[in-house]
């Protein structure tokens, strides 16, 4: 480019030159270098407050220091007050009460835990002789916008020089309001470090938050995914006094479940109130509709989660609910103090199964639910209730008005408020005549009862193929190379489903369906036989395959979500457990001749997350001992854990075949009320 | 309107013209990156990576890997021309390989050992054939980010430790992908500042590393290969040094990562003289942090005989620093 400038025409030419400059390719003024300088300055702004945290292999919970768990690698911390550092539970796990701090000059300090926020995964450390750090300026939450620069500062890589990663704010309110999301590279190396804006003001402290706080993950697996979280500094400052006072803040539990299965957009109507829970103490009842929690209006279940998740056990929340319908509706205002934990919930049943409704029946049905089957010898049977009766209402306390029952979910919600052994009053009608009978609930039987509900009678068309009442099909779906095999009973009612994972052997052959045909037909349970992608091992990808198979089956024929189970044998047993963890918190798991996988995480049972698990018995003594220990552990957590008989003793025709009849009968009983 | 102001305006214009935009910079730098195709090595390993043209007559620097274990190594230039390359030699310590193709007037990177120092926060662009997505004459993939840290490489691939112990540039974006190794790391002016490394995990943190070998190492590696001293330059890993030689008996190494607690202290030993006590937990040997018994032995082994041994321990929740005097020679106790 040549610029010839004549003094007389200078002004015009300058204007021209500027215009040309802007228009010429290569002359766009992208602020690359200016930004680079800004990143550096933003990091320097906070660097003096950023320290390295090194694991200290010292465990407070172990019986002595010799049994200490080993630390996990360097991480970061932020000086938030004189001699006080915020770090994360990655650097200082729950069973460790101390850490080593490495200062920017390389000197070390011993630090002890003052308090923890188990929800935000933060730890407050106290250490002597920390250098004076400049006060941190917090970016107010209201000023954060997705898209603005976000610079992650840590010292995990190098204690003496701050480590910089650059990204943007991806979302302002994430993980139910706990954190700000960023695409800057967040990893164990900078957990505990500040996320700052382009001016060096602190957006928050980087933490290993799981994306969904209800998940089973510890959050660290997101480190290379372009997803990182920071807890806003103003939220941390709000809890600092409690951490300083030595508190360990845990998640606050209210103790309710919702009728709607959609945990986001569902109606915030309470299905059950846990015995002994803060919700029970606050007088909440099944059927109440949440209107307001704290200062947040609640119109969907998601609103309630947003209101409760950021709070801790011990926090007291104002709660408003609407009780009753239309003119009779009352607004009830109360308060609840959130609890850290609830006694494990145990499922109480009265021993009946509602008749499966065909999809077309829905509108014509009168009030109440038809009873399809009663458990022989169970509370309902002893009270004289029989298949064909209708269950109209349930009262869970003597003298209280009975709550009408319009669906199996409502009945389950009312029973969920009872502990096994507590009485209930069932209003039942037969031939149009209603009566109320008292029953005493029992625990869900752990071992599979000898009888289950019969299959729907199906007219067999001799021209329509094999006459045992089942179809065997491949569950074809887009991009599924080896579709699983499904044995599907004929008929119209929603089906229970058993997913079977044998020892890994690659794709499933048609012949494998033979062992399941009779059992599937007898118990009206669809059986999905999945293959392993790798012929030698089950893998994570196969879990996706199971989820897709269930979705594909559900498109052919509706699935009853209360009766879904996954069972496995050998290496397939561990896979079945892991798949169940991913697929749903309520689905049944059967581990044939196997104990739980060694790393199985057992969450305490809740009405929404209680499993019926069958396991064992194991062919050798060590396995049998592990099975017994697992059974006790599951029972302690409130789940129902039954023992499987040895395959040969299960009445199966051929040893080495899966216990098809037992498992299908079990699935048909999963919806037992 | 004064002439001085006019001149200033023009100077600004000229100065800005000299500063390439990111788009121009990438277009220019990508011409110097080649796609390399070779053997798959063991089952399941990729058969492609990236390389850097460093001389107009066809010298190419790349990562030493199983991709090069092949009868024929093919290099595809930015313009789509395909050359068969010859392996000149490798530097096993830096895991560098020098290839040569028969060409002339080829576009090249200047590799320099005296570039300005690279600090954390420096904006960079990586250019590589990650995942082999650049097919035929398609241009390699550009990724942007910053240098997160400049730290010694402490890494492993599978169970094997990487040999190189010098500083590398840790990046804040994901380059540990198949095909990235051997790619270019350039600054915003398009100057080569490093070569993307192979897929490695951090020994201490267990996370995947995204890193590049600094340009100065590329210069040194090329010289070592051409002078035939590359293999000799590989220093053997330091032998672990047993702290019993200093009079400190640590707890038995029964776990994968046994914490380095002191079990007993030999009377009249350097450890006893320095005041080390049973149940002390070692947390640092000199400036190096240690969290396992094995790391204590490695940290002591990395010192030379005669170096002062300074230990930091935790005792009753407090840090205590101890000076054990010079490290003895490394014979068996």
Q: Structural class per helix/strand content of chain A?
A: alpha+beta
The CATH first-level class of the largest domain in chain B comes to: Mainly Beta
Residue share in helix of chain B: 10-25%
CATH topology of the largest domain in chain A: Thrombin, subunit H
So what's the overall shape of chain B? Answer: elongated
Number of H/I helices of chain A: 12
Number of domains of chain B: 2
Strand order of the largest sheet of chain B: 1-2-3-6-5-4
The CATH architecture name of the largest domain in chain B reads: Beta Barrel
CATH architecture type of the largest domain in chain A: Beta Barrel
Structural class of chain B: alpha+beta
Low-confidence stretches of chain A: 1-29, 58-71, 213-219, 648-655
Number of strands of chain A: 35
How would you characterize the largest beta sheet of chain B?
6 strands, antiparallel, barrel
Average pLDDT of chain B works out at 85
The portion of residues forming beta strands of chain B comes to 25-35%
Helix content of chain A: 10-25%
Strand order of the largest sheet of chain A: 28-29-31-30-32-33-34-35
Order of secondary-structure elements of chain B: HHEEEEEEEEEEEEEEEEHHEEHEEHEE
Oligomer: heterodimer
What fraction of the residues of chain A are assigned to beta strands by DSSP?
A: 25-35%
């Amino acid at each position: 480019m040549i610029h010839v400038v004549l003094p007389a025409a200078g002004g015009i030419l300058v204007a021209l030159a500027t215009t040309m400059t802007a228009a010429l390719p290569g002359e766009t003024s992208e602020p690359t270098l200016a930004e680079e300088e800004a990143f550096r300055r933003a990091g320097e702004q906070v660097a003096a407050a950023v320290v390295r945290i090194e694991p200290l292999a010292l465990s407070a919970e172990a019986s002595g220091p010799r049994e200490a768990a080993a630390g996990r690698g360097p991480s970061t911390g932020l000086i938030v007050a004189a001699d006080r550092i915020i770090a994360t539970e990655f650097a200082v796990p729950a069973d460790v009460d101390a850490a080593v701090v490495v200062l920017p000059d390389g000197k070390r300090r011993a630090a002890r835990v003052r308090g923890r926020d188990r929800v935000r995964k933060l730890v407050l450390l106290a250490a002597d002789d920390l250098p004076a750090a400049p006060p941190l300026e917090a970016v107010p939450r209201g000023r954060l916008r997705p898209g603005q620069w976000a610079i992650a500062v840590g010292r995990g890589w190098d204690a003496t020089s701050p480590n910089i990663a650059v990204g943007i704010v991806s979302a302002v309110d994430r993980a139910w309001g706990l954190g700000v999301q960023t695409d800057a590279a967040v990893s164990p190396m900078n957990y505990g470090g500040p996320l700052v804006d382009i001016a060096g003001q602190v957006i928050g402290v980087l933490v290993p938050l799981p994306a969904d706080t209800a998940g089973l993950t510890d959050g660290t697996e997101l480190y290379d995914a372009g997803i990182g979280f920071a807890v806003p500094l103003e939220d941390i400052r709000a809890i600092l006094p409690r951490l300083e006072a030595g508190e360990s803040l845990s998640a606050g539990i209210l103790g309710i479940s919702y009728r709607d299965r959609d945990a986001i957009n569902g109606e915030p109507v309470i299905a059950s109130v846990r015995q002994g829970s803060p919700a029970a103490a606050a007088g909440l009842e099944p059927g109440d509709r949440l209107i307001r929690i704290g200062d947040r209006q609640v119109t969907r279940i998601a609103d309630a989660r947003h209101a409760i998740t950021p709070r801790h056990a011990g926090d007291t929340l104002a709660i408003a609910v609407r009780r009753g319908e239309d003119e009779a509706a009352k607004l009830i205002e109360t308060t609840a103090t959130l609890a850290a934990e609830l006694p494990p919930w145990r499922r109480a049943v009265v021993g009946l199964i509602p008749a499966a409704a065909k999809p077309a029946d829905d509108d014509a049905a009168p009030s109440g639910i038809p009873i399809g089957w009663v458990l022989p010898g169970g509370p309902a049977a002893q009270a004289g209730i029989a298949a064909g009766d209708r269950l109209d209402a349930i009262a869970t306390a003597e003298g209280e008005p009975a709550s009408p029952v319009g669906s199996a979910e409502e009945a389950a919600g009312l029973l969920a408020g009872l502990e096994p052994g507590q009485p209930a009053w069932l209003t039942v009608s037969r031939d149009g005549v209603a009566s109320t009978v008292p029953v005493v609930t029992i625990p869900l039987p752990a071992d599979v009862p000898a009888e289950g509900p019969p299959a729907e009678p199906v007219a067999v068309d001799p021209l329509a193929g094999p006459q045992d009442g089942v179809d065997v099909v491949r569950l074809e779906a887009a991009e599924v190379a080896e579709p699983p095999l499904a044995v599907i009973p004929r008929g119209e009612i929603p089906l229970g489903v058993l997913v079977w994972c044998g020892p890994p052997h690659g794709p499933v052959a048609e012949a494998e369906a033979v062992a399941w045909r009779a059992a599937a037909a007898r118990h009206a349970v669809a059986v999905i036989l999945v293959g392993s992608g790798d012929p030698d091992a089950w893998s994570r990808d196969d879990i996706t395959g199971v989820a897709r198979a269930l979705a594909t089956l559900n498109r052919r024929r509706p699935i009853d979500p209360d009766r879904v189970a996954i069972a496995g044998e050998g290496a397939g047993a561990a896979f079945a457990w892991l798949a169940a963890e991913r697929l749903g918190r309520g689905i049944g798991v059967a581990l044939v001749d196997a104990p739980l996988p060694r790393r199985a995480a057992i969450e305490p049972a809740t009405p929404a997350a209680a499993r019926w698990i069958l396991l064992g018995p194991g062919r050798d003594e060590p396995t049998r001992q592990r099975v017994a220990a697992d059974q006790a552990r599951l029972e302690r957590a409130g789940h129902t854990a039954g023992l499987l008989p040895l395959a040969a003793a299960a009445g199966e025709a051929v040893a080495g075949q899966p216990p098809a009849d037992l498992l299908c009968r079990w699935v048909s009983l999963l919806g037992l009320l | 309107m004064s002439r001085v102001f006019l001149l200033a305006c023009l100077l600004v214009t000229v100065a800005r013209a000299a500063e390439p935009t990111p788009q121009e910079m990438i277009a220019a730098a990508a011409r110097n990156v080649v796609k390399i195709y070779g053997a798959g090595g063991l089952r399941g390993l990729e058969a492609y990576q990236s390389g850097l043209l460093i001389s107009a007559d066809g010298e190419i620097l790349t990562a030493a890997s199983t991709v090069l274990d092949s009868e024929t190594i093919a290099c595809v230039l930015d313009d789509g021309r395909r050359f068969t390359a010859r392996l000149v030699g490798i530097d096993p310590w830096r895991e560098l390989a020098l290839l040569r193709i028969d060409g002339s007037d080829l576009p090249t990177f200047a590799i320099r050992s005296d570039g300005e120092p690279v600090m954390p926060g420096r904006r960079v662009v990586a250019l590589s054939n990650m995942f082999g997505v650049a097919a035929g004459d398609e241009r390699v993939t550009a990724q942007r980010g910053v240098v997160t840290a400049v730290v010694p490489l402490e890494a492993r691939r599978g169970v094997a430790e990487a040999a190189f112990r010098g500083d590398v540039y840790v990046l804040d974006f994901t380059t540990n992908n198949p095909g990235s190794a051997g790619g270019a790391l350039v600054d915003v002016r398009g100057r080569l500042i490093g070569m993307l490394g192979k897929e490695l995990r951090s020994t201490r943190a267990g996370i995947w590393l995204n890193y590049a070998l600094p340009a100065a190492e590329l210069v040194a590696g090329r010289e070592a290969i051409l002078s035939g001293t590359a293999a000799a330059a590989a220093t053997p890993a330091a032998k672990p040094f047993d702290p019993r030689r200093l009079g400190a008996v640590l707890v038995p190494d029964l776990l994968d990562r046994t914490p380095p607690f002191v079990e007993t202290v030999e009377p009249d030993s350097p450890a006893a003289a320095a005041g080390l006590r049973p149940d002390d937990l070692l947390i640092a040997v000199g400036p190096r942090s240690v969290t396992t018994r094995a790391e204590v032995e490695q940290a002591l082994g990395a010192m030379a005989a005669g170096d002062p041994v300074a230990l930091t321990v935790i005792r009753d929740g407090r840090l205590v620093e101890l000076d054990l005097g010079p490290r003895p020679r490394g014979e068996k106790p």
